[in-house]
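Hey, can you fold this one?
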Amino acid sequence: MISALAFDGTGEYLASGDRAGRVVIFERMNKSKSKSSTSLGDTSLPVKKTSNAEYKFYTEFQSHEAEFDYLKSLEINERINGIAWTRRTGDALFLLSTNGTISCMFCLLITTYCI
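Sure. Predicted structure:
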């Protein structure tokens, strides 16, 4: 069951977290179908209109596992409570996930070749 969702700043990637501590990344399929509009009543803020964005599976990984905090005598649940994307730098995407106690940062490299 999904417990957290987050789009990256461009809308090209969607991350979902679940109760088992997994993060699943989806990539947008139809990237060229967005157009910008500036008509928002009296304001002149740009608004992106997207028609039926579709996403496909990109990758999946285990973000958190159940742990036990011996100092507090407390079990730490693996459920992901929050996901956040950071700014993109080059071909790298950075993703933060938290279960309320532990935060993890992940780097996803977007490449079409292996080094």
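Residues 2-31+47-109 form one domain. Let me know if you want another pass with a different chain boundary.
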